[in-house]
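Exercise 7. Given the components listed, write out the predicted structure of the assembled complex. Treat all entries as one system.
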Amino acid sequence: MFLTSSGQARSGLLWALRHVRRASGAPARDPRFAALEDSDLQFFDSVLGAGGVVTDPHSLQPFNEDWLGKYKGSTRVALKPKTTEQAAAILRHCNSRRLAVVPQGGNTGLVGGSVPVYDEVVVSTVCMNKVLSFDTVSGTLTAQAGCILEALDSHVAGHGYCMPLDLGAKGSCQIGGNVSTNAGGLRLLRYGSLHGSVLGLEAVLPGGEVLDLLTTLRKDNTGYDLKQLFIGAEGTLGLVTAVAIQCPPRPLAVNVAYLAVPTFAVAQQVLVAAKRQLGEVLSAFEFLDRESLAITLRHLPGTKDPLPGCQAPIFLVVETSGSSAAHDSDKLERFLEGVMEEGLVLDGVLAQDSAQVQQVWQLREGITTALRHRGAVYKYDVSLPISQMYALVEEMRTRLTTALPHLAGSSGGAGSGGGGGGDGSDDDGPPIRVAGYGHLGDGNLHLNISVPGYSKEICEQIEPYVYEWTAQHRGSVSAEHGLGLMKAGCIGYSKPPAAVAVMRQIKAALDPHGIMNPYKVLPPEL
Ligand code: FAD
Ligand code: MLT
Ligand code: ZN
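Answer.
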């Protein structure tokens, strides 16, 4: 039962309900697509050479399965072009033969977008891993799409710069995948979205045309900004082959505080104080709840509780990055004194050296992997008004405890004071645990439901409830992970029909045969 607070919210929910088609399992294989033939493999060999064409079933396994182990395809071939010309020749062939294609980067996506649904041809950018140029004056980096994010960060670090995005998957995700998902990450609060920092890109369209938009200009008002279409397109419009990106100066001083607060409402007060008092040096404001902490301490080896024994329900990671260690420390200490004196913060620690900074970040960044270690996980990545963010976690906990008491009962979540506390004890809580964490400063909640295995019984309690709740609160059902296969039927919860219709027109204009990443992002036409 939903309460509508305004007419606007009510009409939003109505169009959402009317135009949503839930992704209940995968759609049927589209009969327009051809099946792979030996002559196709011969053509791919002629373009890429034998090393660039993977057909052995064992070697294909990682290309067919996503990071979560939730989505599995059955491709018979993965192609590894090294150059834009090779990529163009492959796509031109696939288009003429009506072979469906899935672009794949580091395969760290969390919505099933990077793996085939059926037998689509995987085009992997793993061998497109060259830095093309770096301008040390402007800080603009131009790199092939398959460069690993962390490797690029190390590259620009040598010149005193850093990448404008950072995320837990940095060791394996690729810049082309980051751009194609419009990844947000841990420092969007400071450096903004890729829609701002990507200056140019090169993409191969399905017909094989190369769209060279690889400029490094800060300002360029000549016609429609076509590169924006590919940022967040999730491989449905073309293959991104190179990216030009603006890198900010690498901060000389980084400080991290880890704080315990009594409620999510108080966490918001601390955010307001941080924005006012830390101003330009504030670079991250993240939160994790006690369930997230407990699961991570238990399931991710090497993690340590920065506040052992503290039973607070919500923890914050507050980071400053600047050019003067003394200036930043002074600001951060004053801020911490202020929030402590006001009684907003129950307990806290300030990392004393880079090892402690890493330790705190490992805890926050490691939640995703810890949840994966625990078992299966239903992941939701929603944007909401900050004031509403945590209510969804609490309501989900209550809902699951009521509906499935044998699986979710006595969950030790934030505010419940129950077991599974954040002390790294052996208690792994009930089979179903609801964890909330995310980018508080950006209004981005990661609601995660850790379960023993994926099941219809559990899923029906979560979906479409979580999407309806989000639409009801004028949120977005995908803040940063994209729609992929998981939410291809859910765009209507966050976009009106007119917007979806324009998206379909763009898709038809760029990919008239629909070969690029079918079944993903847009719902099938009724
Ligand atoms: P893939 O997973 O390979 O692909 C993702 C999508 O982009 C697919 O639809 C694919 O078809 C398409 N694609 C990939 N490369 C290209 C290309 N060259 N051209 C066209 N389409 C392409 N996301 C966030 O936003 N913020 C986070 O903080 C964050 N943290 C994460 C932490 C972990 C531990 C993990 C596993 C994932 C995390 N993610 C996060 C999700 C994920 O979106 C990002 O890791 C990343 O942006 C995906 O990059 P990738 O190279 O792995 O892309
Ligand atoms: C994060 O912020 O940790 C990532 O988006 C991954 C996740 O949601 O688990
Ligand atoms: Zn995130």
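Discussion: The CA atoms of residues 110 and 228 lie 22 Å apart. The chain has three domains: 9-127, 131-246, 252-462.
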